[in-house]
Amino acid sequence: MSAPVLEIRDLHLAFPLGRSFADLIARRPGRAVRALNGIDLDLRRGETLGIVGESGCGKSTLARAVVRLYRPTAGTVSFGGEDIFAAHTRRDRTYNRRVQMMFQDPYSSLNPRMTCGQILTEALSVHRMRPAAEIPARVAELLDLVRLPQDAAEKLPHEFSGGQRQRIAIARALAVEPEVLIADELVSALDVSVQAQVVNLLLELQERLGLTILFVAHDLRLVRHVSNRVAVIYLGRIVEIGDSESLFSAPTHPYSQALLSAAPSLDPADRGRGARLQGELPSPLNIPPGCPFHLRCPRATDICRTARPDLRPIAGRGEVACHHADEIALNG
Amino acid sequence: MTRDTILEVRNLSTTFARAGRALPAVRDVSFTLGRGEVLGLVGESGSGKSVTLRSILGLSRHYGTVTGEVRWKGRDIASLSERALRSVRGREIAMIFQEPMSSLNPLLTVGMQLTEVLKAHTDLGRSERRRRAIEMLDHVGIPSAAARLDDYPHQFSGGMRQRVMIAIALAARPQLLLADEPTTALDVTIQAQILDLILGLAREYEMGVILVTHDLGVVAQTCDRVAVMYAGRIVEEAPVAPLLSDPRHPYTMGLMRSVPEGVAPRTALYSVPGTPPALDALPQGCAFAPRCPSASAQCTATDPALNRLAPGRSAACHHPVSLAKGDAA
Q1: What is the pTM assigned to this prediction?
Q2: In chain A, how many domains are there?
Q3: What's the Cα-to-Cα distance from A286 to each of A32, A188, A235, rounded to whole Å?
């Protein structure tokens, strides 16, 4: 694999909560939802990196921070060696053009009063991708690229089906010729057969245009299918990262194991197999000390309750943040 | 596996009208459900699975025309008056929905919403109702149930809210639970917990369950029998294992094949060509014919009936496929 396109280093992001009057009087410090707690991640050119985790684990926050929709509290994200949050890069739109985001719900991310053609034209003209005269031809080209009929340009978003709307979102992202696509639950709202069409399109376009994709989704089967590498996130921290096939066939972190075994198998004979994860994700307002997973972990020991494990390479596996990773890798 | 039939749906059709056009959402659906049986109703959005569920309980007749029979313990509840239905709804047949936040009352504590059901459907006294409410919350796995009785729905997490919904639905010990995508909005980890819970309770109370879902994994892990719906009709019905290992209707086969499993990573997934038909523009003949790889002239002329292929198995197809015969290779 080649050099990283995006380098994320020790990224922290907290959303402060409003302090109540009582808190002010009692001089209690303000509380904050700690969504990201030290993410280190490299996105390599041309790869698809899958991000999985339960809702509230910070996977969407991470995606949004990468496109500068949120400003991190600490840490850096560099693109081509430049910090994307530094003042001078904030002013220039190049980064916005080169890294494009696509959202889960195309109903709320496409302007309902603009036709599909206007939506694409706007993207093309904002970033001055083409002289005005060439725009209609480029719009036609884009519609063709995502396999929408040419008369789609005249239609409003509500006239399309869910799958077609996601194609418009993809076309809009591709209009500005980006290098990186951030797909946040891109196909989660679609039916399986439509999902398959959109995923096929994405894979094909990636191949053709050499795109790098950060694929955030909760559907584990789908993430396994599209990703080269996968990162498992728990409470705003990566607990395991590695090659997609090996991570899915032999997860090491107890959380990855539990998460993957919870995905319902298509074989009725597997019924009742797999350990169920007890309890729910702790609140990101109150992250447990030690290993954040120890409260739900079947293997937790004393050290897990006090010391936070760091992400480290494990022989024969990817990188895992677990005190007992070596033992698990050895004995299964 | 012979179970006494508790529910029999015969020729159920539900039609809505929009801008003067008829939208047949459910077309001539018939099936039965045994005591303690879990039936999965599978299909894509708009296939009529939720409307079927709602029509059983008389919830869609306010918006559309419902014909056919819903025989529940020997009587036709589709023809009952609203007043008479009230003694069935919640007491004998309960329903849970996908989004618990929109079906729980945000202004009432969960304790009040639980005891309300008990007040309507049981003769329990006030303190007994409270005790039973705590018992139910405890039973569905809500920690420190007694303390949470006075909490409002927004104070619960998504998974806990769905548990509250289940507690309310099961408070009056119904014999049939209609579950409309009960875990779609939840994480896989919580989904597994909730499905275990529903199945455990179904076994314990010998309660029948009709589970509407679009997730074939959920079907494989929970259902005894499955009915696949397409454009308002049941196109295939079979016990779960044979349905998943040897689908007979081309649509079921297409659904199975578009799931990314057992496919080489990062290769094209199979997808059923085309899109489902609009309900007000259903094609002549089989509704699936325009997308079907094995469609013939017969298919575009006449709509196939749901025919029995083997004991317990039926498919509405003129040319049923079979993996066993190697049709799909």
Answers
A1: 0.89
A2: 1
A3: 9, 29, 10
